[in-house]
Design brief:
heterodimer, A: mainly alpha, Formate dehydrogenase/DMSO reductase fold, two-stranded antiparallel ribbon, about 0% strand
Chain lengths: ~350, ~450
């Protein structure tokens, strides 16, 4: 039961990263793939009508986390206090820059909000990457199950660690490059003209850059958490995740080389999905590893809500998820195809 | 040294209070406005009259701006359960998390999937599809309100829970939790109050256009719909929903009722003080103008009913800011009464065909729109201050709920950050809404021309 809920909660967070990751990526590349004001509106229009739909998955995840693993939610959110508020503020800035920029047709005005758009998306990718690194490395959980963390301490990965150290920074860099690649793949699918051509180039380069970075992070992870591989190999979900990564990498490569944009984008989604899923499977059942003492680590079993709460949640969650799939189908059909500011009267603004 | 700087609980409360009050300025309009959009879209379907479609297009833009700010200011609310109220989440997360998660899965997904279709999808979806999108968004926003009010009602009047082996709370009965009687009353009262906000805003913009001699057809539509719905909703907010809410408080939180009324000594034939200043030090209500027996009657149905006073309870169970609670409650009642008077008079003038020619009334309608926001805020302050010193009434103290690991400085820092960010957000929101209002309804074609201009830059 608790293992299933662990999978469900991880699944929701991963869906969020996959969905909003394309916006982070497109946002980071905003300046390099789009040069003229018109091209920049095109990038915004590719994201525009859907960013709230993507962002509410974070809320769905947050709510489910409180319901299923209240003690983890409490420890982790309070422990990451300032980092989380940075994420929240960046999310606000990002949403505002999407909504506000297009309202006034003025180059300075739009340039200013484009700047905020790029900056907030870049910071979000860095922060989420560093957060993932923190979960993998562990945080200084004390005997009461609490922790409180500085932004950085001595950049080392043991003992009283900070949010940023050499390991989490390298994962943040990987996240930036990979989400940028994801966003470029998305823009290739959604746009046409010069934005499309530049995105296509960037997608290829960035996905190539992901490979060495990923290898570095894997080697680092082996050093930082020597206990993980053994646990991962015993977990069938880890093998499932590995299979997804391999299959989607083939899909992605074939999509990129044959210029089948939808295929490449599907591959890109599932590469990220698979990587995060293997990560989630590898750390199970520990949700928050303690860098101070292994016995302080918070496991899914220790932080879960009572059995009755879990049982009741398992009645409504599938219904909610089925509805979400239905909306997803509606959205995919409704917003299918490329955006074009010139001809699309449905366009954003 | 004893100061607020040494009391982290104060800063966590202030931050949550500030961010939630600010956040709720936006959903209250979207929840109220949503049914106007559904109604106009339905009228357009039935009559084929283009003025209704024009109204929907115009208000959908205002709706969209509100929705966006509502989303970005709403995400911090959920996160603060963990960041600022970790001990509360550890204790009650198994219960309140259920509705927070359901709100995401059932309400936000629905709303956010269709809001884009409502604002930009008219042509592609066709009239029926567009109507369905409006309906989906309205249902989503009200459903979201229900889940949040169930969460709040659990804090006001906990039902359906059990205490788990580790001492935290878990759900015992989902139906008891979701069908909390407090939630029904609060939902009815709160949603109607949101409709009051929506109708005042609709009427205000109608009055603005009427005073400016702009968009006469639209102005008439907004004025008539706004004042009529405003009258009905204002009446229903007071009676029966407000009345039922007060009875609920009287039955389950008698100390709160006494504090709301500034009543220190209990007794039968308890009066309602229309005016008066509570003096907590002297434990009396100063300079009161009272209606004898009214409180007994309103709270318990008989003039002779005994109403408890604050002195009947130990002082540590009193709400911790009596004055603020008292004034919030009384000002809310006063404003609610004025809303009925104003909208009643406007409806009468409309019926006599004199609404649009009475410039004074139009001025008042135009300038009245901030007051429902204030009344909604005061109502929530009454509910939340009245619940003190409890976070979950009778079960869990507010002072036990905040995150122990978060330092005072961190909490102050983020509060200041929110203040600055929300100030800028408010300016942007007002400027952009102002632009949309200045552009006015029926200018969709120029919007497309604008876009072409953008292309040619």
């Amino acid at each position: 039961m608790i293992a299933v809920w662990y999978a469900v909660v991880s699944f929701m967070l991963i869906i969020y990263v996959v969905l909003d990751g394309r916006n982070f990526g497109a946002g980071m590349l905003h300046w390099v793939v789009a040069k003229t004001p018109n091209e920049r509106r095109q990038v915004i229009a590719a994201i525009g009508p859907l960013w709230t739909w993507h962002e509410v998955w974070l809320l769905g995840f947050g709510g489910t986390l409180i319901a299923i693993f209240p003690r983890l939610m409490a420890s982790a959110f309070a422990g990451y206090y300032l980092a989380l508020f940075l994420i929240l503020w960046c999310l606000i800035l990002r949403g505002v820059s999407i909504e506000v920029g297009g309202h006034i047709n003025d180059r300075l005005w739009q340039g200013y909000w484009d700047f905020n758009f790029v900056l907030s998306n870049l910071l979000l990718a860095i922060l989420f990457g560093a957060a993932a690194g923190n979960v993998a490395r562990g945080v200084p959980v004390d005997a009461q199950g609490n922790f409180s963390m500085a932004f950085f301490t001595d950049f080392n990965v043991r003992g009283h660690v900070g949010l940023l150290d050499w390991y989490t920074v390298s994962i943040a860099i990987l996240a930036v490059v990979m989400l940028a690649a994801h966003g470029a793949t998305y823009l290739t699918l959604k746009t046409e003209g010069p934005v499309h051509d530049r995105s296509e180039k960037w997608a290829t380069y960035l996905w190539i850059a992901v490979v060495p970075l990923l290898l570095v992070v894997l080697i680092e992870s082996r050093i930082v958490r020597p206990d993980l591989p053994g646990r991962a190999w015993a977990n069938p979900f880890w093998w499932l995740g590995l299979f997804i990564i391999i299959a989607s990498t083939i899909t992605l490569i074939s999509g990129l080389t044959s210029r089948r944009e939808l295929r490449a984008f599907i591959g890109s989604n599932f590469v990220i999905f698979g990587l995060l899923a293997t990560g989630a499977a590898a750390i199970f059942p520990v949700m928050l590893h303690s860098t101070l003492a292994p016995e302080n680590s918070l496991t899914a079993y220790a932080v879960a809500a009572g059995p009755m709460s879990l049982r009741l949640a398992s009645f409504w969650w599938p219904v909610g998820f089925a509805l979400a799939v239905f909306y997803f189908v509606f959205i995919s059909r409704r917003y299918a195809g490329k955006v074009s500011v010139q001809r699309d009267t449905q366009g954003f603004y | 040294m004893n100061s607020i700087f040494n009391d982290p609980g104060f800063w966590h409360r202030l931050q949550f209070g500030f961010t939630i009050v600010y956040h709720y300025l936006f959903p209250q309009l979207t929840m109220g406005l949503a049914w106007f959009l559904v109604y106009w879209k339905w009228r357009a379907l039935r009559t084929g009259d283009e003025k209704y479609n024009q109204a929907v297009r115009f208000w959908a833009k205002i709706f969209g701006l509100n929705f966006a700010v509502g989303v970005v200011t709403g995400i911090p609310m959920e996160f603060q359960f963990g960041t600022n109220w970790a001990d509360f989440s550890k204790y009650a997360g198994g219960v309140i998390g259920q509705t927070l998660a359901m709100e995401g899965m059932f309400a936000f997904f629905l709303e956010s999937a269709f809001v884009g279709a409502l604002i930009w999808g008219e042509k592609r979806l066709g009239p029926r599809g567009h109507f369905a999108a409006a309906l989906a968004v309205a249902l989503g926003s009200w459903l979201s309100g229900y889940f949040i009010l169930v969460t709040n009602s659990f804090m006001q009047h906990p039902v359906g829970y059990q205490i788990e082996a580790n001492g935290s709370l878990g759900i015992a009965s989902m139906s008891a939790y979701l069908l909390n009687p407090w939630a029904f009353v609060q939902f009815a009262h709160n949603q109607l109050a949101a409709v009051v906000t929506g109708s005042f805003v609709v009427a205000a913009i109608g009055a603005f256009y009427a005073l400016r001699d702009l968009h006469p057809v639209q102005a008439r539509l907004y004025l008539r719909a706004g004042t009529f719905v405003g009258l009905i909703a204002s009446l229903l907010v007071a009676f029966p929903t407000g009345d039922q809410q007060a009875k609920m408080v009287g039955n389950h939180q008698p100390i709160t009722l006494a504090a709301m009324e500034g009543k220190f000594e209990g007794g039968a034939m308890a009066p309602v003080a229309l005016i008066g200043q509570p003096n907590v030090a002297k434990q009396q209500l100063e300079n009161p103008i009272e209606v004898p027996g009214a409180l007994s009657f309103l709270a318990y149905g008989h003039f002779g009913s005994f109403v408890h006073g604050l002195n009947d309870f130990p002082k540590d169970q009193w709400p911790d800011n009596l004055e603020l609670l008292y004034y919030s409650f009384h000002l809310m009642i006063t404003l609610g009464t004025l809303f009925i008077v104003l909208m009643g008079f406007a409806t009468l003038q409309n019926w006599r065909g004199k609404l649009e020619s009475s410039r004074l009334l139009l001025w008042v309608l135009m300038l009245a729109f901030p007051y429902p926001y204030i009344a909604n805020t005061l109502g929530w302050m009454t509910a939340e201050l009245g619940r003190q010193p409890w976070l979950i009434y009778g079960l869990f103290h507010t002072r036990d709920g905040y995150s122990r690991v978060v330092s005072n400085g961190d909490a102050i820092f983020t509060l200041i950050g929110f203040t600055g960010l929300y100030f800028v957000l408010g300016l942007l929101f007002l400027a952009l809404t102002g632009r949309e209002i200045a552009k006015g309804p029926g200018n969709e074609t120029t919007a497309i021309v604008d876009q072409r201009e953008a292309v040619s830059i």
